[in-house]
Amino acid sequence: MTCNIRSHRTRWIALCLALAASLFVADGALAKKKRKSPPPISVANDGMDHADCGSSFDPCRSITQGIARAHALRRARVVLGPGIYGDLNQDGDTLDIGEDRYPVQIDGISVSSIGGASRTIFKVVDTRFLPDDGILSVGDGGALAGLTIAGTFAHRGLRVRGAGAARNVVLHGLDVGAWVEAGGSLVGALVLKSRNAGIFVTGGAVAESIVVGTSRIGFRLDGAGSRATDCQAIRNGTFGFMLTGTDVVVLRGLALANRSDGFTISADRSLLKDSEAVANGARGITVNAADAVLQGSFVAANRGDGLVLGNQSQEARIDRLRAIGNGDDGLEYGTATATVTRSALYSNARCQVWSPGRNTGFEIAGFYAGDPSRCRVSPYRRDDRGSEQQALAIPQPKKKKGKKKKKVAAPAISSPWPLRP
């Protein structure tokens, strides 16, 4: 830009320099602007699978084709419209046009729905064509959100592996609702009427999930790294939670109205913290593991014992246990070695604390057991089961013997009128 000014040269030179600087800054700001991310691949019920599908005005029909297009075009997301996917005509195979081939592999991309799990359903009718991987498999870098998988006792509904993640899914009528392997995470799942286990965790993490009405186990956690947080197991056929292997963690779990035990723990070095077992058909919590830690457990209204420490429970640590109104004993232990602190047991149907024999490795501190009359407070007694009981000797407060007040006879009343006979 040329400035041909004869007079006031200094003023015009300054003005030209300022204008050039502003143009340079504007060009730099435009260069720094990020490019818009490419649009996601669209999949919808009114779409059609072909080599160029995936735009919003020409969506694909199947999730499988949408994922293939996303990988081909290097897109990060696949968006599903409301409707039915999977076995569309429910003829038991996946060979028809627009149907998904099992398993649907989700690796390195995100698959989510617009209408959520209530309006986006993946149907499975026959299990003959299902591999062990399950119906949908979320792997490294993959994510799934907002989908219902409904089937007829398929092997696995959802498999989450590696660094995969799934959230806000509904799994109905499957053999195993979800299988979460090492590194995988599942959040906000609702599992209904599974045949075997609602959610099986082998080294992964599950949170804020509910399992209702399975034929067997609600949550099964097996192996180091398995973790469940804020999960609920309700009205399942056997156990609410089963912990096996080693180093399993359950935080704020709820086992409600399951047919057998609320929690059964055989995982060494496991942690059960701030969890509740209420109205289960057998025991609230059963422990047969070494170095198990129970903190803040609440067991109430179970048909059997509140907490049972089996003979394999060694060096267990129980803190802040509350056992209230259970159908048998509040706490039962055999040859277990354990330490119980800051706990309270009362209103249980038989004994507050019961053991079939002597056990010198069982320590109690800061303990309260109400209703001592239900079990005579003595070191050992013969109860109605015909075995010796080791009961907690609770020091009862002695009543202060006060001086008896002497009865004072009422003073005689004199009257000027004669009394009637």
Characterize the structure shown.
The chain is mostly beta strands. It has one domain: 3 Solenoid (Pectate Lyase C-like), CATH 2.160.20.10. It has two helices and 37 strands. Strand 1, helix 2 and strand 2 form a beta-alpha-beta unit.
Q: How many strands appear in the DSSP assignment?
A: 37
The general outline is: globular
Instruction: Give start-end ranges of low-pLDDT stretches.
Output: 1-6, 29-33, 376-397, 413-421
Q: Report Rg.
A: 35 Å
CATH fold category name = Pectate Lyase C-like
What strand line-up does the widest sheet have?
A: 10-12-15-18-21-24-27-30-33-31-28-25-22-19-16-13
Largest sheet: 16 strands, parallel, barrel
What is the beta-strand fraction?
35-45%
Give the % helix: under 10%
Whole-number count of domains: 1
What is the typical, i.e. mean, pLDDT? 82
CATH fourth-tier homologous superfamily = Single-stranded right-handed beta-helix, Pectin lyase-like
Q: What's the level 1 CATH class?
A: Mainly Beta
Question: How large is the count of helical segments?
Answer: 2
